[in-house]
Amino acid sequence: MAADEKALSFSIIFNFNVFIFIIVMRTRIKICCISSVNEAKLAIDHGADAIGLVAKMPSGPGPIPDWLIAEIVKAIHPPIASFLLTSEQSSEEIIYHVKRVDTNTVQIVDELTTGAYSDIRTALPHLKIVQVIHVSGEESIDDAVRISPNVDALLLDSGDPKARIKTLGGTGNVHNWDLSREIVKAVNIPVFLAGGLHANNVRQAIETVRPFAVDICSGVRTEGRLDPGKLEAFIKAVHSL
Q1: 15-40 pLDDT, tens digit each
Q2: What are the pLDDT digits (tens) for 48-104?
Q3: Could you write out the three-class secondary structure of the chain?
C-alpha cells in the first residue's frame, strides 16, 4: 500500500466526525506525556495532531491518574486525537480503562496476553487501536507483520518489556531506524515513530524511516515540563520536510 493510501486509511484518527477529508502528505505529530489541560492546549496551539496521555506504568516519565486524563480529554476536540497509553495486557482491562477516560484512541504499550483485539473492537467500535512494537531486533519486523492486520496503526518505540522492571516508553533512546524502515515497508497500516527524537534528529529520522507520524515526550521537555521553545523547534523541523 502506498504512503498516501496508508494516510487515508488512518486519517480518521485526526478527523473524527469530519466527513470531508483533505489528505495532505505531511508527517503528523503526536506530543506525548501531556500532564495538564494547559500543556494540551500548548501542544495543540503549536501544531500537534495528537495528544498522548500516559496512565500508570511500571517505569518511565509522564504517568498521570485516570481522573486527570479524563479531564484533559474533555479539552481536546476533533480533529485532534487523544491517545490513552495503557500498560494493561488483557482486552477486558483495556476496555475498562478506555471507558474510564474516554479517549478516542488507545495505545497499547505492552503485549496483549489475554483476550483479543477483536474484543476491544466489539466493545468500543469507534475506538482506534495502536499497538506499540519495541524495536529490538529482526524479530520486531515479524511481530509487526503478525499484529498489523488486527490494529489501526503501529507505534515503534525503544522500550524493553522483558526487563526486570519493564520500560514501555519515554526512554529517550533511539532504536535502529533501518529496522523501523523495514517495518514501514512490510505493513499496510500507518506507523508512528518514537524513541529519542528531538529537533536535531527528527528530520533524519523521517527521511530514513518515512513514518506516518512522529511521537515525542522527553525531547520537548525541560525539567519535566513542556518547553515551548523545544516544542516550536521540533514542530518546525518536522514541517521543514
Answers
A1: 433 333 334 478 999 999 999 999 99
A2: 999 999 999 977 778 999 999 999 999 999 999 999 999 999 999 999 999 999 999
A3: CCHHHHHHHHHHHHCCCCCCCCCCCCCEEEECCCCCHHHHHHHHHCCCCEEEEECCCCCCCCCCCHHHHHHHHCCCCCCCEEEEEECCCEHHHHHHHHHHHCCCEEEECCCCCECCHHHHHHHCCCCEEEEEEECCCCHHHHHHHHHHHHCCEEEEECCECCCCCCECCCCCCCCCHHHHHHHHHHCCCCEEECCCCCCCCHHHHHHHHCCCEEEECHHHEECCEECHHHHHHHHHHHHCC
* Contact by Cβ (8 Å): 103, 72: no
Grid cell, residue 157, equals 518505540
Pick the closest to residue 82 from 53, 62, 44 (CA basis).
Answer: 53
Cβ–Cβ contacts within 10 Å for residue 229, how many?
10
Vertex 47 angle, CA 41 and 53, to 5°: 50
Give the CATH superfamily of 3-17+24-239.
Answer: Aldolase class I (3.20.20.70)
Grid coordinates representing 211?
513514518
* Domain regions of the chain by residue span: 3-17+24-239
Q: What is the pTM of this model?
A: 0.88
